[in-house]
Amino acid sequence: MPTQPNNNSTSTVAVLGFCIPMMESLDKANKPFVAVVPSEFEAYMVEHDIPYVLWDFNKYNEKSGDLYEQLKAKHATVAVPLYEETVNWAGALNSHFRDDPRLFNRYHLFRDKAMMKRKAQMSGIQVGVFEEADDADDVRRFLRRVNEAELKLEGEAEEPIHIKPKDAAGSLGHKLIRSLKDIDELTEEDFPTLMESHLDGQEFSCEVFIHKGKIRFLNITEYIHLGYTNFVPASPVLEAKRPLIEEAVQQLIDAFGIEYGMIHPEFFINSKDKISFGEVAARIPGGHIFELIEKGWGFDPMLAFVLCSDPNTSEDVLDNFFPKSYDDRKTFAGCVMVYPQHKMVTNINVPETLLNDPYYEKHNLFVPVSPKVADRVAFGDHYGTVFFNGDDSERMRDLLNTYEKVDFYVAPTPENSAQEVVLSGGGAP
C-alpha cells in the first residue's frame, strides 16, 4: 500500500506556477522546493515564508536564461511544470539541469498539437487524419476530403471534424465542425488551427507516472461526458483493457523519449479494442483528476509527480509509494462539473435527494458576483463541482449521469429577481 516516502533525495525541485496543494504536499513530505510564480503572488509567498522566484511565463526575451541561473543559485536540480504555459519553461530548464539539449524539443511536443500528432504518427501510433489550417478555405477543403473518404452519399449527414488551437491547453478553443455553416462562423482568431477527423469509441485519459522511461503507476480516468463528468479508478469493464492501454502508453513514452515526470494522454478505444491517440499533456490534468486520484487510490499525485520528475528518487521510494494493483483502490471517486443552463442566475438549488445520497461527498457550487453567466469557452471554467465517492462503479456512473442533467442554478423570475441570494441545501461545504 502507498506510504509517505522517506526523502532519499535532497534535490531541490522548482515547481513552475502557483499551486497551494502542490506546495502543501512538498512541505508535508519535507521535500525542498522553490516556487516560480508570477509577481501577483509575491505577497502570499512572503507572508507564508515560502522560497520563491518571480517570473512572467508569457514573456520570452533575451533574459529568459536568467531563470536557470536564479534557480541554480537556490540549488534547484529539476523543474516540474504545473500548468500549460510552464511546460516549455520546464523543458528549457531541465535541458540545463540535465545537460541534455534534446529535452527542450521533447517538451515542445507537448505544446504543439500538430507536431505531437505528427511525431505519434511517424512512430506507428494510431491517430486520426489531421492537417493544419491557416484560414476557413483550408477547413472547407479538409471537411470535403474527409467526407469523400467516408464515401458519403448525397443527403447523408456529413462526418464531423474538430478544430483546436495548436498550443492551447485541453479543450480551450476546441470546436466541432458539422457543416459548411459552422465554418462560416469561424473568425480570424480561430487561426492557425489544427484540424482532425472525428475518432469513434470511448474516450478516456491516463495519468501516467514515469521514472527512467518506465511506467511506475498508471491511472485510468473514465469519462462519462468529457468536460462534465468523470471518475477514478475506471470501472472493471474499462480496467480490463489495461494491458492494451499500458502497451499504447509505453509506445507513446518510447516515441516521445519521455524519461521522467507525469503525462496525461487521452485515448479512444472502440468496440474492436482498437486504441487511437488523441493528445497528451505534461502538467497537472484538469477535471479535478488529481483530487479524484488521491481519494480513489489513496496516494498524493502531486508528490508522485515530483518524485517521478526527480532522477535522484530511489527505486525503493517509488516501489513503496504507489498501489500495487486494482484491488488496492480505496473507493470510486467521481465528480460533476456544473455549468449554469441559463443566461442569468440568482442562486443555487441543491436537491435534498443529492444531499441525502450516501455517495454524495461535498459541493463547491457558488453564485457568481454578476448574475450574467459568462459564455463557456473551455471545460475548466465551470461554476462549481459536486463530488461523490462509493464502492460501486455502476452506481457511480448512474449518479454522474443523473446529476449532470440537474439544473443547480436558478434563473431570475419576477418573484426572486429582487430577493437576496440564498444558498439552498447548505451552500458550499
Short summary:
The protein is α+β, with helices and mostly antiparallel strands and 429 residues long. It has 15 helices and 18 strands.
Kindly state the number of beta strands: 18
Task: Report the mean per-residue pLDDT as an integer.
Answer: 89
Computed over alpha carbons, the radius of gyration is 23 Å
Strand content: 15-25%
Helix content: 25-40%
CATH class of the largest domain: Alpha Beta
| Order of adjacent strands in the largest pleated sheet | 13-12-9-10-11-14-17-16
The shape, in one word, is: globular
CATH-level-2 architecture of the largest domain: 2-Layer Sandwich
Mind explaining what this structure looks like?
With 429 residues, this protein is of the alpha+beta class. It folds into three domains: 12-116 and 201-330, D-amino Acid Aminotransferase, Chain A, domain 1, CATH 3.30.470.20; 129-197, ATP-grasp fold, A domain (Dna Ligase, domain 1, 2-Layer Sandwich), CATH 3.30.1490; 333-426. The protein has 15 helices and 18 strands. The chain has helices at 20-28, 42-47, 66-73, 87-97, 102-109, 113-122, 136-149, 180-184, 236-239, 242-256, 289-297, 301-309, 315-321, 352-355, 393-404, and strands at 12-16, 33-37, 52-54, 76-81, 130-133, 161-164, 175-177, 193-197, 202-211, 214-225, 229-232, 260-269, 275-281, 332-337, 347-348, 360-363, 385-390, 409-410. It has an eight-stranded antiparallel beta sheet with strand order 13-12-9-10-11-14-17-16. It has a four-stranded parallel beta sheet with strand order 3-2-1-4, with helices on both faces. Helix 1 (20-28) links the parallel strand 1 and strand 2. Helix 4 runs antiparallel to helix 5. It is globular and about 65 Å long. Mean pLDDT is 89; it is low at 417-429.
